[in-house]
Design a protein that fits this description.
Shape: rod-shaped
Number of domains: 1
Strand content: under 5%
Radius of gyration: 18 Å
Order of helices and strands: H
Number of helices: 1
Structural class: mainly alpha
Distance between the termini: 60 Å
Number of strands: 0
Length: about 40
């Protein structure tokens, strides 16, 4: 029971880390394109 709980916790943390990493990449690319737009303008 405890091992199953720890496994679920590990999976949840892993998924959360992956999602925040992906969101960070999206935000960074958006900022980069915005910066490029400002330079073009």
């Amino acid at each position: 029971q405890l091992a199953l709980h720890l496994l679920l916790l590990n999976l949840t943390l892993r998924l959360f880390a992956f999602n925040s990493y992906r969101c960070g990449k999206i935000v960074m690319s958006a900022q980069t394109s915005h910066f490029t737009f400002l330079l073009d303008f």
